[in-house]
Each structure stands twice: as C-alpha cells, then as structure tokens.
C-alpha cells in the first residue's frame, strides 16, 4: 500500500473546498453544502494519494456526501477495524472532509493504525472497469428515486473487484474477525432464497464480481429498488451454482456453508442473524447475553438502517446492539453515550 502522512486536521469552510470544481456526479448525490465552519479532517483521495494493497482489505462506503456520519456508522467502522487488525479498513466517502468537531474521527485514526478515511474519485475508481461506460453515461442517476442507493450498489462492487477484500454496509457491528470468510456471499432470509449485497468477500478480479458487474448493467431498472443489488446477486449465484431456485442450494436442515466452485454461500446466521422484519429484536433490552451464548458462529450483526431509523440505542439497556457497541466499538460508544441516555 502506498503510504502517506496522517490526514491533516484544520479549520476551513466546506464551501471553499467544494465550489471551485466539484465533480459532475456530486450534483446527483449531494443535497447541499455545509456552511458552518468546523474542525475537519481533509481526506486523501483513493487511488491518487493512497492505494490499497490487494485482498487484505475491509471496505465501508458513505455514498451520500455526509461529512458527519452517525454514531452507528462510526461504530461499524470501528468494530471492523478493531476485530480485523491485520486488514486495512477503508471508509470510502463522497465528502472531501470529515467533521471532527466531537473529536471521534480523529481519535479513531490515532487509535487504529489500520484505519483509513478516503475520498472517492469516482471517475478514477470506475475507469478501466466493466462499469466505466455505465457510470459515465449517468444512467444510474436518471429517472430514479434512489441515485445514492444505485451509486452505492455500484461502488461497493467495483472497489472489491479492484482491490479485493470484505465489504460491509455501515448499519452493522462486527463481532468477530472476518478473514475466514473468503469469496463468499450470504443468504438474507431464513428461507435462503435471497442473497444479500450488504456484506460479502471476494479476492480482487474475482470472476463472480466480473459477472456481477456485467449483470448489473443488464438488470438495471431505475425504478426497481435493488435491481443492481440483491436482484443481481440472486441471478449471479443461481448461474454460478447452476440452480433454478436459490432455495434448492442448501440441503434440508443444513446449517453449513455451500460451495459452488470458487464461491461460498453462507447461511444467514453468519452475517445476518435476524431478517429485516425482525430488526426490533436487536434493540430489545436485556438480550445481549443470550445472543452471545446462542450465536457463536455469527461474525456481524446487521441492524437494517433503512427501516430502523426511529429506533434508539438505550445506554445501559444491554440490548443486542447496545451490548455489541459497548464491546466492539468502545470509542464510538464512549462518544455516543457521553451526556446522553440514548443515541441513533
């Protein structure tokens, strides 16, 4: 990996950085500049200022130009960094700065030498890939209610294809080192008939991701949520495993991963211990100790940020999320709980 000095922390106005020549794609995903002056961290540009090594990476993405991610997002970033000390963890952002007013981002960088916050130059990242023409055409933002989601689906795949490693959404908490989970995807439902694109691992230039990128373009429908996400992953796993139905992949009552060539499909409890419609269980008081005893094969907890935004994490509740945050993202938990009885 190309090294550089730690990101410089200084005070400046966000407008002064963004106004001169903003990238063309920012107008479709950035909802407005932040006019206040903060103490900020200026981010190095991925692939220009710093280049990941191959395969020993964890990628998390912030694709909505947020310079001040939620405590839950920071918890996710910290937990993966803490539990995977031999991997470089990359928080890939579409904002050129991170708001360091409460000092948490700076403390995370100081505490974890394997953590990197970087700015995504999307033209550079997509250049020379199967998705380059599709990205530059702008089809991903035209006539769709979800340009940020479409971009996020594209970016996670192209990053992992380029550099190899583990990708995770930021509404998660990592509770175990994920390095054993190579070239793998996970089912997202107890019926095991859907594949998640919210967490996966592949080595760089893996043929499955090459197939995914081509299929994304074919399957894309601007008003169909997930057409470049779960729908694409479903199709590619079916083809890779020569299946008519995904539910036929796992033998009856099996709790073991299934391998198709150089692709492994994990049962849901490895990375998605609760389906999306049971997300409230993650926030119920007093459930953490039981979870630890009964989920010994689980590597991360997915809290389904798309549907749980109104749910508070109660300090001291010992819910599954609160217990995981307290244990696996201690700095983020400390900042989130300081002078608060709950956080989002």
From TrEMBL:
One of its GO terms (molecular function) is hexosyltransferase activity. The keyword Transmembrane helix does not apply. It is found in: Golgi apparatus membrane. Keywords: Glycosyltransferase, Golgi apparatus, Membrane, Transferase. GO terms for biological process: glycosphingolipid biosynthetic process. It is a single-pass type II membrane protein. SUPFAM superfamilies: Nucleotide-diphospho-sugar transferases. One of its GO terms (cellular component) is Golgi membrane. Pfam families: Gb3_synth, Gly_transf_sug. Residues 201-333 form the Alpha 1,4-glycosyltransferase domain. InterPro entries: A1-4-GlycosylTfrase_dom, Glycosyltransf_32, GlycoTrfase_DXD_sugar-bd_CS, Nucleotide-diphossugar_trans. Belongs to the glycosyltransferase 32 family. This is Alpha 1,4-glycosyltransferase domain-containing protein.
């Amino acid at each position: 990996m190309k090294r550089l000095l730690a990101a410089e922390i200084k005070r400046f106005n966000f407008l002064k950085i963004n106004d001169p020549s903003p990238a063309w794609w920012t107008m479709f995903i950035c909802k407005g500049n932040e006019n206040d002056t903060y103490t900020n961290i200026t981010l190095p540009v991925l692939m220009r200022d710093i280049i990941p090594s191959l395969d020993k990476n964890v990628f998390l993405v912030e694709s909505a130009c947020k310079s001040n991610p939620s405590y839950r997002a920071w918890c996710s970033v910290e937990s993966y960094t803490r539990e995977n000390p031999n991997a470089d963890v990359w928080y890939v952002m579409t904002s050129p700065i991170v708001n360091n007013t409460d000092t948490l981002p700076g403390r995370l960088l100081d505490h974890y030498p394997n953590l990197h916050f970087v700015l995504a130059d999307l033209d550079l990242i997509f250049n020379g890939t199967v998705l380059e023409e599709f990205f530059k055409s702008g089809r991903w933002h035209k006539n769709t209610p979800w340009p940020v989601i479409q971009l996020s689906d594209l970016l996670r795949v192209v990053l992992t294809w380029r550099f190899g490693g583990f990708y995770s959404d930021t509404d998660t908490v990592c509770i175990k080192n994920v390095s054993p989970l190579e070239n793998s995807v996970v089912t997202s439902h107890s019926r095991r008939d859907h594949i998640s694109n919210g967490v996966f691992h592949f080595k760089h230039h893996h043929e499955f991701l090459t197939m995914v990128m081509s299929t994304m373009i074919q399957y894309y429908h601007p008003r169909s949520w997930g057409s470049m996400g779960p729908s694409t992953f479903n199709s590619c796993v079916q083809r890779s495993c020569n299946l008519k139905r995904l539910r036929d992949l796992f033998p009856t009552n099996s709790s073991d991963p299934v391998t198709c060539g150089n692709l492994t499909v994990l049962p849901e409890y490895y990375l998605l211990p609760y389906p999306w419609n049971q997300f409230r269980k993650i926030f119920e008081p007093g459930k953490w100790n039981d979870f630890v005893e009964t989920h010994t094969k689980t590597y991360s907890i997915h809290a389904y940020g798309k549907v749980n935004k109104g749910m508070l994490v109660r300090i001291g509740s010992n819910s599954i999320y609160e217990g995981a945050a307290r244990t696996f993202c201690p700095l983020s938990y400390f900042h989130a709980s300081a002078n608060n009885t709950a956080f989002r």
